[in-house]
Amino acid sequence: MTAVVLPPETHQFKLGSCTITVVKDGASILNNPWETFGSNQAPDTVRKLLAQNFLPTEKLVNSYAPAIIDTGSDVIVVDTGFGAAGRARGLGRFREGLKALGYAPEEVTVVALTHLHGDHISGLMEDGAPAFPNARYVTGKIEYEFWTDKAREGTPAEAGHKTVLANVVPFAEKMTFLRDGDQIISGMTAMLAPGHTPGHLVFHLESDGKQLVMTGDTANHYILSLGRPDWEVRFDLDKAQAGKTRRRVFDMIATNRIPFLGFHMPFPAVGFVEKQPEGFRYVPKTYQLDL
């Protein structure tokens, strides 16, 4: 019997006059969660928090969720997933999901990148050509300058440097480099949120009075990052700064009761947060945005 390959998971909702669609690019299983999250904690401390939240203690699922914002006049892709580089591992399914939803890659008018790690930029190219040939591109000025600097050679960031040279630099002439507070389109603003990477951005979207914050990798796990925002994360380049940024960004989201879309949150990656003494409680989206 031939196995049936289903399209990747997708989730769609309205935000004012915009249609937001989240696509599951794939998921990975990580062993020994304490090596990634809470790397400055005792392993048993991490295990205990996972167990308290009904999660396995020895393994962790990390999923990836690029998104599409359809304003009626623009089709904006926010981060691009792994692309062809991830397909041998069951990743890189964003392009497939885009087509399943009825979007042609040529229809994409803007590609907005929260930061330049491989799981966010490797879908920019397809078979050696631009995956979204008619788009303009936006990313952080600080971010781009950091990853393209030859000073990354011979450092732990060298692999990321090479990935950016291959996937992002070819678009430099079509790219707008953003600073804190710059507008991407009307109603969509970039906010500097450094720590995970030096120029990491979050995007604030407002349409007809409705708001959404696209937090990228500001927090990468709904318990271990949001519940304990000060715990160090292996993937954060500046771990102390990343903790401060997590608190600042999610305090704003909690205080204003704004939904957010986090690239690595449990699919469909959209939810709310409530302030708690040690951090934040994650509340997954159900039907709040459907009524």
UniProtKB/TrEMBL annotation:
Origin superkingdom: Bacteria
Molecular function in Gene Ontology: hydrolase activity; metal ion binding
SUPFAM superfamilies, per database record: Metallo-hydrolase/oxidoreductase
Residues of the Metallo-beta-lactamase domain: 63-257
InterPro entries attached to this UniProt entry: MBL_superfamily_lactonases, Metallo-B-lactamas, RibonucZ/Hydroxyglut_hydro
UniProt entry tagged with the keyword Metal-binding: yes
Keyword annotations of the record: Hydrolase, Metal-binding, Zinc
Family that this chain belongs to: Belongs to the metallo-beta-lactamase superfamily.
Name recorded for this polypeptide: Glyoxylase-like metal-dependent hydrolase (Beta-lactamase superfamily II)
